[in-house]
């Protein structure tokens, strides 16, 4: 007979054995499903090597403990830490590393005097972090449960208030307006705040406050009289504040004061956003790139009422009480999102805008027409005013109508600047002139973390492209964004924004239906939250005084980084001289553009449908406006007089230029531009219909995008594009075609060890402009040894996007292929691979979240262990990358073996199609960009 102890051991061993068998069975089932998924995907019929780069490898496990249900993550477990490092750097999916729960995440205090304490109820919350899993779950569940399409919006739930939460957590330290209105924080108060919250108030340049010389210089501008003035003009006491008031601060920033250090500006702007009356008009929720749904927002004075203050969170918990385990509850936001999409009332929210075609991305080409670049503003105003009197207008239509009515009364010479950037922030490294002042933030460590910055820029463009595709809006890559795309399907690493153009007709669609809407990325793919902001003078299509060159912006509300959007239209601006050759190219006669103008029969009675400003002054030329200002000086302030004079001087300069239209009046210029299909944005970048149309369907940053029909021509109008695709150098940057990536030359010299200054790494023996395949492994290994971890992550994660662009180039510029053959092959490539290209960058919110987890790991494990874990992961990733590169090099990449069409089982091996721009016998000698081929 077995003893009790031996029996217990026997049971334990049996249990372990069964658990191991169960685990093996579960793993086998999982692998079966993955296999079925791969085989049924239909995009690639041979191999799954890209799948190995994209498949999620860190599946969070959940279990029950005294704290409730939560993701199993052991900071001391090598497997968990290895999985975290791998996911943080090499998994760009929208998956979270753990599970968000009521007790472990929401009710457990993360800082302050109550740090570690678990609250009994959400009613006790003084602050919370607006984790997307929490907010999505509560808001969407509320809409489904209430059968409503309205929701009380709060910036607190959607924008990042991490820094402000630290002030909300304070119970003993008093913060005044003075702390918020000095150029740099008072160090004594700062230290008291950090002592109470038990963590730094900010990370970026926090160590500078301990340097006496720097601190004295930063505080030097702090003059008592000036600070008092700033406090009077920008800050006031909050009447709703009391020592125990949740979500309330003792002060309210009434207007943003810009001349502050970034860490002060961050809090200043966040407070202003929280307490301002400015809110979006709606939420636009994306279902990937397929559809968009509109959620209306309640018009309320209490714009800062969050999900706790409106009881939405409490109601959510009550509805899901049965799902609780040990008093804990999982917030499964993707499950709620899918329930939301399938709910009957969601159909009412779906956006199908009359005049827009959601199928435009299904074809290889999109043909534009002259009507896309003309817009009859007066007819639109009449239409909306008629509808207002009969049926009434939606909130978006009402604001749009008001904007049009304001715009037509705005003379180009008197336009006031619409967009405001944080240009006055007192630290040039903050790049304030590329940030919207309302949403400027230094984030967790944004100014010092290029990986987060790149993640934000990538998420911006990916979400915008999915947004346009889901709604049928037409836009295309332009300026530096188009130039970056040309080489590897990505932006230039040194660009700090994106540039897009769209025809004026679609700019008006954007304004009417989406202006002031918060665009929300599909939460299964990422967590982007972007304000679509369209200027209030879009009917003015000339440069005017130059204050409003940008028509619209797509703004990241967590950082202020944005996309610049400009509309192209016919205008009365003088066409630039470089446009002459495109007019002459399209005409069948041999006459020059000036000669064609001389032959033009101007009909002075022809309708001039450009609207240039304010009724009274808008109908006059700038010469007439200046004469009016000169004769009525008391009717205009000094700033307006300067703007008019500036515009007048620019008009005079046209007559002294070499422009073909220099002798024409504004009306005549408009008529000529219209006849010859010459279009411009308000920054006087000109293009023509034959340069733009047909737009070509492609992939940029892993998502669908359009580019102009003749991209080299479009770029050469602004830049000088080198003729060759291959090794390039530009202003201290290097493009390596073997890695399809741009690098800083200073960094390149280090990890190639060109100057023999790195004793621990092997020197690159090959010439940079003629690398061998074996050099790839060496360069990547050296890259890691030199500490360029984020650069390697960028190279690795962008493999699919850059390999796609490489194959696209090889087909596009193969002179042996006919245009029809190119079109067929490009369609096969795009249809077969576009849906499987992973994002080249991580979702920024997930990245920051995982980065914080890693910082917790760094506090527990020693540097040696962390180094070994990171080295092991990166060694495996280098092997994966080299293996994929070898297949690309040898023209044997499985993913390029694709079905010829949806209804055809014939396999087309694209490895064998097009030029050879990488690998053996590479054709870098071909100057493929030397002529503007209509590929």
UniProtKB/TrEMBL annotation:
Keywords linked to the UniProt accession: Membrane, Transmembrane, Transmembrane helix
GO cellular component, one term: membrane
Domain LicD/FKTN/FKRP nucleotidyltransferase per the UniProt entry, residue ranges: 468-720
Regions that span the bilayer: 21-39
Taxonomic superkingdom: Eukaryota
Keyword set includes Disulfide bond: no
Any GO BP annotation: glycoprotein metabolic process
Subcellular location: Membrane
Annotated membrane topology: Single-pass membrane protein
PANTHER family attached to this UniProt entry: FUKUTIN-RELATED, RIBITOL-5-PHOSPHATE TRANSFERASE FKTN
Name recorded for this polypeptide: YJR061W
Source organism (scientific name): Saccharomyces arboricola (strain H-6 / AS 2.3317 / CBS 10644)
